């Protein structure tokens, strides 16, 4: 993500139950925080001025996230290819017809 791109706010319900650590605490307890993530598999949310800005996770969690992103990308590519094939076969619905079918007109 480019620096000028706005970042979405983290969903509070997704990070609310995770332990948090301020930047100042992280500076003082970096070794402990890393050990908690690495050996206890804790996911620690790093906050700045009370807002979640990052998380420290185990390498296993990071690998799992990468794997999920790769699967999602593969699924997206497959869906795009299927949509292109449907279009080539003429199996598409005109926008106006779809709006009528959904009761939006």
List the helices and strands and how they pair.
Layout (H helix, E strand, L loop, with lengths): L11 H4 L4 E3 H18 L3 E5 L2 E6 L2 H30 L6 H7 L4
Parallel strand pairs: 1-2
Antiparallel strand pairs: 2-3
Question: Could you name the key traits of this structure?
Answer:
105 residues; alpha+beta; YefM-like fold; 2 domains; 4 helices; 56% helix; 13% strand
Structural features, described:
- By secondary structure, the chain is an alpha+beta fold.
- It folds into 2 domains: 1-57, YefM-like domain (YefM-like fold), CATH 3.40.1620.10; 60-105.
- Helix content is 56%, strand content 13%.
- It has helices at residues 12-15, 23-40, 59-88, 95-101; strands at residues 20-22, 44-48, 51-56.
- A 3-stranded mixed β-sheet has the order 1-2-3, with helices on one face.
- The model has no long low-confidence stretch (mean pLDDT 87).
What is this structure, in a nutshell?
With 105 residues, this protein is α+β, with helices and mostly antiparallel strands.
CATH H-level superfamily of the largest domain? YefM-like domain
Q: What strand line-up does the widest sheet have? A: 1-2-3
β-sheet strand percentage: 5-15%
CA radius of gyration:
22 Å
